[in-house]
Amino acid sequence: MTNRCMTNRRLTRMHPICTKQYASIGQQLIIGMLCSALLACSADSPDQNTAALNQPYPAQTGGTLISAMPSDPSGMIGMVAGESASLAIGAYLFNSLLTFNQDLDLAGELAESWQVADDKNTITFKLKPGLQWADGKPLTSADVLFTWQLIIDEKTHSPYASDYQLVTKAEAPDAHTFIVHYAQPFAPALESWAHLQVLPKHKLAGQDIHTTSFAQKPLGSHYYQLKEWRHGEYLKLERNPKSVLGPANIDSVVERIIPDPAAQFLELMADNIDSMTLDPITYARIIPSRPALQAKLNQYKELGNSYTYLGFNLKRKPFDDVRVRKAINYAIDKQEIIDGVYLGLGIAIASPYKPGTRWSNPDLTPYPFDPAKAKQLLAEAGYVDSNGDGIVERDGKELSFEVLTNLGNKQREKTAVIIQRRLKEVGIETRIRTLEWASLLTNFIKPGDFDAVVMGWGLSLDPDQYSIWHSSQQGPGQFNFIGYNNPAVDKLLEQGRIEFDPEKRMQIYHDFAKVLYEDSPLVYLSAGYGLTAIHKRVQGIMNPVPPAGVGYDSHKWYLPEPLRRTQIQAE
Amino acid sequence: MQRILQNPMAVTGLCLIGIILLLALLAPWIAPYDPDAVQVKQILIAPSAEHWMGTDGLGRDVWSRMLFGGRVSLLVGLVAVGISTVIGVILGALAGYYRGWVDTVIMRLVDIMLSIPSFFLILAVIAFLSPSITNVMIVIGLTSWMGVTRLVRAEFLSLTQREFVAASTALGAQDWRVIFKHCLPNSLTPVLVSVVLGIASAVLLESGLSFLGLGVQPPQASWGNILTDGKEYIQFAWWLSLYPGLAILITVLGYNLLGEGLRDVFDPRSHTR
């Protein structure tokens, strides 16, 4: 889980999510001890400033916002480093051609306008006039072209290269025009240009991207620039007065590196950080049990772009039988999982899209909990309990399988336990096995050696899910590891990729979700909420939270003078 | 026996272990709830008349889980120590009786095993195999026989010098007869003490492994994994961490007291300490 409040709309890519809660054994033990020690001695004293915190102040500039992130970035060029910490810091520093507005529709960032040609194979971007880097040098289409060349370069080994490699030709005929050509229409292309962090050609040309000092001392064009970086401790960012989108309100942002969520929470309680991502227990139980802390925080709850599922290995029996898959779907009580595991902070879903967005098919309702129907479907599939041991069998073979999930993710372990319980009630025996994340992926998922898994998908904003569902994506290490193969879905996914018209695309993906729903290749368990706590001294946060998330427009956040931390300036 | 009952340490230990063993053995009859019954409407209820030790994050009754978890913890302790004792006694006897290169090989093996921090060895092996009760018992057993080996070897070294051993050898007794009939019964006292102490450390190891998620797998309860579930809620659900912690403490204390008591009783030298 990345842990950012500002500009977290960037670079949400499709990825299997692991959400490991604990970094190492040693850390676990130490944190455990810390928690119990602090429990004994910290008395919540009522804060006299609570009243002042609730008072609205006019927008103003200045102050320092302190935030926490779980790991140290490996470098500042996120598109090369390919890990979330680099991308997170990169989002403070670099701009993209396009961005998403508060309703998650595409909007221009560096680009003033963009045009898709009639044959849909060419996109022309017009850059805004007068763009410049933080050092005052002009930012032109040559920089964009340079960044594209860098990303697709074999030697760069960028994990995000594939989308950009579909560009057959890119050109920058003048300083304000950037044109890309595709061999065939590719609808997710526009979104891909909202992800590409544009880098300065004049700093990077001729350098080895893997060893350049730029990765330590970057130069960007966005709201902030990197002032100081203490590895493993913190990164200090300072406002970029020449920001291409106008200056931000808050003077500086400090991102502290705190790997353990429990340690982050201790820092939040001690008022040493202003914001953090919460888990459901902290959000729903721990913070409410501490009124003095709760009075100082604004808590935000927004539906995340990810979901948890029970996935079947469709190449194995009995999961090749749609009646068995549906029976399992009916036998699982999703609301029970949401209440028990996520303390109610989740919702049941019926399509692989965030509910309430354009792409989610409103006509579908989640499979209800109906054990009678499940038993009936099992009987239709030939599974009956003929020897009276409580487990159904067909041809003398019991319906029994192993559920894998990743070690250390308590939420998934609990989910598996609840599923096990419910499936037993309809006569299906399951065994739970928890495995370390890397071992789960390498030894079981990649070779396809599993019965069923409890895992999650983090989704991109574009509805294209070709890599998860298309039958061609079943190779080792590819995302369709459940082995889903449905010509109707293949066709819809291919159509969706070449259709630019939003209405028509919406229909395609609604149809796609309907086929999946009927086929039940996996059981959608729940879409969880993203939970954030931000100290009340941070004002100007958009209320209500827009679809783009609480971090949207964070450059407009401000810290009213009376509420700031007292700072001692070391000279 | 009389002397054991006169030793206050041994008696206290025996009582503690007795209570825990009894509770674990009677678990299916005295547990008020099904230990695996998930009740999402009753999550994290504090201890009350209805749930003596409260409920956990999935609404399961902690008292019932503690009882069934106790079975696992004690079973692992007993079986693991059984394995390690059998290995330790056999290797120790061979080393002590035959001496020479047999002794050298076995003792160097002991040195090698002792030089590896056993907890990390166990972690590595369990991560490689898959975590399950059986694997945990076997792995703990296979990595904790070194102490017994050394004890038995030392006893054998001195026993083989005694006249009665020389006498039976002179009468033409075969090696195995000398080992099992004459030497072994005379070397079992220190082994008994080490077995009792070994159970304590095996219970701790199992709890540690389950705490790290490498021991008993869900939904089955063990004290270690009740404790690790409790860690998540430690800020407001103290009962989830307190009770399994206490159970482990009492069990380990019980075995240690019994072990120390037995040592006092059997070993004349220890009175001077």
What does this protein structure show overall?
- The complex is a heterodimer of chains A (571) and B (273).
- By secondary structure, chain A is of the alpha+beta class.
- Chain A is built from 19 helices and 21 strands.
- Chain A has helices at 25-41, 50-53, 78-81, 84-93, 141-152, 161-165, 189-195, 201-204, 261-269, 280-286, 291-294, 322-331, 334-341, 371-380, 410-425, 437-445, 466-469, 487-498, 502-519; strands spanning 15-17, 64-69, 98-100, 106-108, 111-116, 122-127, 167-171, 177-182, 224-230, 234-239, 252-257, 275-278, 297-303, 306-312, 346-347, 393-394, 397-398, 400-406, 429-435, 452-458, 522-535.
- In chain A, strands 1, 12, 13, 14, 15, 18, 19, 20 and 21 form a nine-stranded mixed β-sheet that branches.
- In chain A, a hairpin with a 5-residue loop joins β5 and β6.
- The longest helix of chain A has 18 residues, at 502-519.
- The two termini of chain A are 36 Å apart.
- The model of chain A is unreliable at 1-13 and 19-48 (pLDDT under 50).
- By secondary structure, chain B is an all-alpha fold.
- Chain B contains twelve helices and no strands.
- In chain B, α10 (175-211) runs parallel beside α11 and α11 runs antiparallel to α12 (239-266).
- The radius of gyration of chain B is 22 Å and the shape is elongated.
- The two termini of chain B are 22 Å apart.
- Chain A binds chain B through residues 25, 28, 32, 35-36, 39, 281, 285-286, 289, 336, 339-341, 343, 407-408, 410, 413-414, 416-418, 420-421, 432-436, 439, and chain B through 36-38, 40-41, 43-44, 57-59, 123, 127, 130-131, 212-214, 217-219, 229, 231-236, 241.
